[in-house]
Amino acid sequence: xxxxxxxxxxxxxxxxxxxxxxxxxKGVAIPGYQVPFASREMPMPYGWGTGGVQVTAAxxxxxxRLKVIDQGADDTTNAVSIRRxxxxxxxxxxxxVTAEATVIQTRHRxxxxxxxxxxxxxxxxxxxxxxxxxxxRETETRKMHELEDYGLMHVKLYEDISRHGQIATAYxxxxxxxxxxxxxxxxxxxFDNPKLGGNAAIQLFGAGREQRIYALPxxxxxxxxxxxxxxxxxxxxxHACDLCAAPDSYLDEVITDDQGSRMFVCSDTDFCxxxxxxxxxxxxxxxxxxx
Amino acid sequence: MDTSIxxxxxxxxxxxxxxxxxxxxxxxxxxxxxxxxxxxEVLGIVGESGSGKSTLLSCLAGHLAPDRGEVIFATSxxxxxxxxxxxxxxxxxxxxxxxxxxxxxRDGLRMGVSAGGNVGERLMAVGAxxxxxxxxxxxxxxxRVEIAADRVDDxxxxxxxxxxxxLQIARNLVTGPxxxxxxxxxxxxxxxxxxxxxDLLRGLVREMGLSAIIVTHDLAVVRLLADRLMVMKGGYVVxxxxxxxxxxxxxxxxxxxxxxxxxxx
Amino acid sequence: xxxxxxxxLGLVGASGSGKSTLMRMIWGNYLAASGSIMVGDVDVAKAAPREIIAxxxxxxxxxxxxxxxxxxxxxVDVVAEPLLxxxxxxxxxxxxxxxxxxxxNIPERLWSLSPTTFSGGEQQRVNIARGFVHPYPALLLDExxxxxxxxxxxxxxxLIEGAKARGAAIIGIFHDEQARxxxxxxxxxxxxxxxxxxx
Lengths: 291, 265, 199
Known about the structure:
The complex is a heterotrimer of chains A (291), B (265) and C (199).
Chain A (H helix, E strand, L loop, with lengths): L13 H16 L5 E2 L13 H10 L5 E6 L6 H14 L2 E2 L8 E5 L12 E5 L13 H9 L4 H14 L10 E3 L3 E3 L18 E6 L4 E5 L5 E3 L26 E5 L6 E5 L2 H9 L14
Helix pairs in contact in A: 1-2
Chain B lengths: L2 H9 L3 E10 L2 E11 L4 E5 L6 H8 L7 E8 L2 E4 L5 H9 L2 E4 L3 H4 L6 H11 L5 H14 L16 H13 L5 E5 L7 H18 L2 E6 L2 H7 L2 E6 L2 E7 H6 L4 H8 L5
Parallel strand pairs in B: 3-8, 3-9, 6-7, 7-8
Antiparallel strand pairs in B: 1-2, 1-4, 4-5, 9-10
Helix pairs in contact in B: 5-6, 5-7, 6-7
Chain C lengths: L7 E5 L6 H9 L10 E2 L2 E2 L5 H10 L1 E4 L11 H11 L4 H14 L16 H13 L5 E5 L7 H16 L3 E5 L3 H7 L2 E4 L10
Parallel strand pairs in C: 1-6, 1-7, 4-5, 5-6
Antiparallel strand pairs in C: 2-3
């Protein structure tokens, strides 16, 4: 069911989509560079993924198959409502299976299943500026990007080590793209950072409130910042998934009762489900029947 | 190195200023300033408020664009007019060969970053990527400006005014600049702290072979720190020469007035 | 006038006749309106500030009548400074400074204090120590024995004799006739250079 008689395809008018596509092209041409764009009022408040929604809306064609995840899960409120939004305004097919999607909109995670050429990953970004919390002036941070003046970025990491003995940033970990721009990869856990570089898919980043779009074209180089003697480590909980026994996926910690018992489950629901369908069972899982 | 080239290097000015002028509409900020600064020289610029000395310093350091004139600096690639330089090149210069010490240390420090981070920032900005080495260099420099090593992780907001100023100096000198601009470096500090700071500056200037341009209204500061002196009034340089000669044998009547106005303690 | 290496020239004349002024002109502290002042091959009257500074660093020494120091610097560092500016290592510079201070009978307990609180005689001896810590080829001495007792006057005079012996060219102003007679090889009366008022 669609309300296509009431809305243009994917909600935004064609002129707006053209404007956003131009911004996307610029972003793809200059990997990691934040392109300003005229972010529109969307029927959801700021902070709920308006940037990602605008980028997705500009990219969608009727033949697309859309997947929407929020912290890795297809079934949380956000993911459900954004997916329904596009079903209503674009009438596109939807899926939960990563490998079958052509466009994936995500909040704060990269899917575990490796992406392929032809797929588009759209990230929701709260604060696109990696230097923002050290240098509040927009005029200054623009100059720093323009002149590749990134000493301050390493100052932040230095401060972490001096205060905590290690680089304490666990998510939103900055990367240097193609040896030029320092980019904020959105609040994905640092465990996901290695997937940014060399990824076969097109990665697009949209920040609605801040009005910026940036991009990583396929197979871009994205290196997490670190020190020679404190190298970057993509860390996760030292545990396997309790449902599907995956040893190397990012885990959510779930408190199961008032006594504080906990279980660790894959944050990526599709990844976990497909493993269980394939017969993998974790310590607290039950074998999955059917599909 | 070939001794003749070495000798030539020593006789080439580090900074050549020609006909530098800055106007604010019809008002003169500074006008027709000419001088050469050689490696290892310390130049003092004195004058009262409104004399144009701060405007001149801002034009020299690239903070203000002059309306006329040249500021030619001996970069590693040869003499370059910094007025015509692209901003990227000027900022790189400001990070490496130049340093600027503000009157208020808060303007020259990151108050939310530890002392070690403040000193290490310039190193990281030019590519230092080894935490241990950066920290070692920071601690070494804190020692040279007489700040205890155990304060390396403290924020400047926890430092006294004199310590903040010394931290600013360490932050500026860590990359071994050749030219230091100072705007009233001891302004706002009490007298005993001033004396210690001046002595520290003298020592560092001598040890590092720095050239410096110091703007101040305090004649005692220039007598201690500066080899040469320029006296400014109404935007113009009215007298310049050897510091002790200008102070003890002033030729221009304004200089005579200035010198005689100093309170004797 | 001219002074040769190993020679000590005394400036004489009534008080106010310009002895100190002439000395300051040679030092570069006062501007010469005309003429030339050759120290080695540098004309002080026309030299650029950096040339005069370089001259003062290693070639020309000056002991004025007043001790002018950076506040709060210990005496030993005040005296060692001329050597430090020449790049002599700190330990050696301090060592030589201490030796001179001892020779001039400044008690060791005063070496770490600033000389600004010393008596006139002590300040004068610190001043002299600073002027003699480096073997300058040319020396200007303005009343070097003023405010000194007999013992210390003798020390200073022997320092000057030592400088002469190593070939320094010295110009001195001595109020004390005995000292003048002992030190100076020639005398110049500066009143002969004072322009006469037109009648």
